[in-house]
Design brief:
Elements: E1 4-8, H1 12-23, E2 27-32, E3 43-46, H2 48-56, H3 60-66, E4 68-70, E5 73-76, E6 82-85, H4 88-95, E7 99-103, H5 104-113, E8 120-122, E9 137-141, E10 144-148, E11 150-153, H6 160-165, E12 173-183, E13 194-199, E14 202-208, E15 214-221, H7 231-239, H8 246-251, E16 259-265, E17 274-275, E18 278-280, H9 283-286, H10 295-312, H11 316-344, H12 351-363, H13 366-377
Helix pairs in contact: 1-5, 1-10, 2-3, 2-10, 4-13, 10-11
Length: about 375
């Protein structure tokens, strides 16, 4: 089966979907509202399932070569003591690949490089889709109308297409946390590839990159919409007395490099990931908190699964029914687990639950940490092409 597709959204999930569709012989147009596909963003950890999805899409090796494996790390307290250590070597034995860290900009560039430039349309916003013809979807686009056999809505947590398709759904909900993050301006000396530190209602973490730089993030319990005139200065006030290398990471950061976003999720699961010939993908379908590092990985799984369904089913309708059946239960289960992880991690503020959690983590054998990661990262990719 082949046809024409419009992918709404040029983020990681949208680009991956376009790669998968082109790989199985579809004509694809990607529409991105940003006027320039700028190489911005902080860092990302890709678990085994994300890497396997990239392998299925034909870009896994390029990402591996650009990424840094995460063999060492774990979870700490602000004074520096360890709650749990991550055994990346054991994880690699279990799944065939360790977790890897890569700048989002690098991943985005590698995905774009797998697509012809002429299939990318930037600076155009899609507000709605016309589904009056059951065999075609029409997308109003400025002074034109695009027609396609299939539309992939990969337009993020605030998806306008999702709102049109499911008007009764409450939409994204604020998670209770806000995140500030940046990539250091220069290489930094780090003892671990990855680490999280949990305080009361606050988390600080880092991901080391292949070029010696690192991404750091700070997550805070906060009302939505709070912004700081001097974000980096505020981070120094809040985290400057925490253990090394946190002060070093902050000192290696330019003030203008700090990004600040409130964290929203689809706390109410969608009843379906498809409507007619439109498929929701990534954050548009299952936006989740980042506590398990699975948001992008689930979007990459979506992309591979959608392409696979379209190759094996005889009609678009049956392919989308299969996509929904495969993807909705798994991604929504991961989203629930991520929400629970946040509530038991960074969001805790009362001393007694924090003490109980910390004691449990210190007493748990390292294999339990590996098992927890494997639970969500063990996924068998489809074969495409």
């Amino acid at each position: 089966m082949g046809g024409s597709a419009v992918v709404v959204g040029g983020g990681i999930g949208g680009l991956a979907a376009a790669i998968g569709l082109r790989l199985i012989g579809w004509e694809v147009t990607v529409i991105e509202r940003a006027p320039v596909l700028a190489d911005m963003g902080a860092g990302i950890s890709l678990h085994s399932n994300g890497i396997r999805a990239l392998d299925a899409l034909g870009v896994g090796q390029a990402v591996r070569e650009a990424a840094r494996p995460q063999y060492t790390g774990g979870t700490r307290v602000p004074g520096g003591g360890w709650l749990a250590r991550m055994d990346g070597t054991a994880l690699e034995r279990e799944l065939g690949t360790p977790i890897v860290g890569v700048p989002r900009a690098v991943l985005h560039r590698l995905l774009r490089a797998a697509l012809p430039s002429e299939c990318l349309v930037v600076g155009a916003e899609v507000a709605s889709a016309d589904r009056s013809d059951p065999s075609r979807v029409r997308i109003p686009l400025q002074d034109d109308v695009l027609e396609a056999d299939l539309v992939v809505a990969a337009d993020g947590v605030g998806s306008r297409l999702r709102a049109q398709l499911f008007p009764e759904h409450p939409g994204p909900a604020y998670s209770g946390s806000t995140v500030l993050r940046a990539i250091t301006e220069r290489p930094v000396q780090l003892d671990t590839d990855f680490a999280l530190t949990w305080g009361r209602g606050a988390e600080f973490g880092h991901i080391a990159f292949a070029d010696g730089r690192a991404e750091w993030h700070a997550v805070l319990n906060s009302p939505p919409g709070v912004r700081y005139p001097d974000a980096l200065g505020t981070m120094r006030d809040l985290f400057g007395e925490w253990h090394d290398p946190i002060p070093t990471l902050l000192d290696a950061t330019r003030p203008e490099a700090v990004l600040h976003h409130d964290m929203y999720e689809l706390a109410t699961p969608l009843p379906a990931f498809t409507a007619g010939r439109i498929a929701l993908l990534g954050d548009a379908a299952h936006a989740m908190t980042p506590n398990l590092g699975q948001g992008a990985c689930q979007a990459l799984e979506d992309a591979a699964a959608l392409a696979a369904a379209l190759t094996t089913e005889t009609t678009i309708e049956s392919a989308l029914a299969r996509y929904d059946m495969e993807r909705r239960p798994r991604s929504q289960a991961v989203a629930r687990a991520a929400r629970r992880a946040g509530r038991m991690g960074q969001q805790l503020t009362h001393p007694l639950p924090i003490a109980l959690r910390n004691t449990a983590l210190r007493l748990a054998p390292s294999r339990m940490t590996v098992r927890a990661l494997v639970r969500h990262a063990d996924w068998t990719p489809p074969i495409l092409g």
